[in-house]
Amino acid sequence: MSTSTWPRLRVADWTDTRDTLHMWTQIVGKVRMAYAPPVNHWWHVTLYPTARGLSTSAVPYEEGTFDIEFDLVEHRLRIRTSDGRAAAVPLAPVSVAAFHAETMKALATLGLEPSIHAVPNEVESAIPFAEDETHCSYDGEAAQLFWRQLLQAQRVFERFRSEFVGKASPVHFFWGAMDLAYTRFSGRQAPTHPGGAPNCPPWVMQEGYSHELASFGFWPGGGDEGAFYAYAYPEPAGYAERTAAYYDPDLRECVLPYETVAGSADPDETLLTFLRSTYLAAADLADWDRPQLEALR
């Protein structure tokens, strides 16, 4: 493991911590979902990288707000309300069941008692949070390095985002698949999505993919040190051929290993080339109205 500008973190070295942290983020994300007004494409449930870790951002509650942040500098889950009250849960090697119980207890001390579906989504083995004694690892150094990977990815994604003036998502962290994501939209409706994500009803995916899109992201899998991805929905004819340098026919999306970016002479430009070229393939082949959607440069 390394703390260079683009941190180096082998997935195999922190898989147990990754899987535990994944479940913890699902718990916190579901708390946000319990209180936040619905926003198209599930944008109301996401987390965001911050200067300390990952946060819900401000969530409305009664006449005020609260937020929850994974502080990956001091390794604490911090819960704060707009009336000045706060609670915290240590981030330590404990089970998902213990973390779930402590988090709900801390929320209750602040008058927050969310009703959540306390079972994970988008994973094959969906152990109810209150029963999950399997995932119980926490390597604080690895969790912090992952967060720093997210910061680097977010920084470049935000630069890429500035080049588009059409409908686009924030750069945000989806706790379902544990990925940092950014999506552009053509403005046209898409065919009904078939679903297929594990432990996730088809209507969830249908809402997320209701409109034609090109999506990009980073997740801690797909490469020795994680991977960047890009795909189009629906995938236009010729997309695989035009993106052949990156296209994975098994995943049906484009993949760029994190280690390829981090180890290159210019990581920012290597990643931007991937993002721009895969977007252009989607937009050109699907006949997006590019002059109306792209910022003048």
From TrEMBL:
Pfam families cross-referenced by the UniProt entry: DUF5996 (PF19459)
Domain of life according to the entry: Bacteria
Protein name: Ava_C0101 and related proteins
Organism: Paractinoplanes abujensis
Organism placement in taxonomy: Bacteria, Bacillati, Actinomycetota, Actinomycetes, Micromonosporales
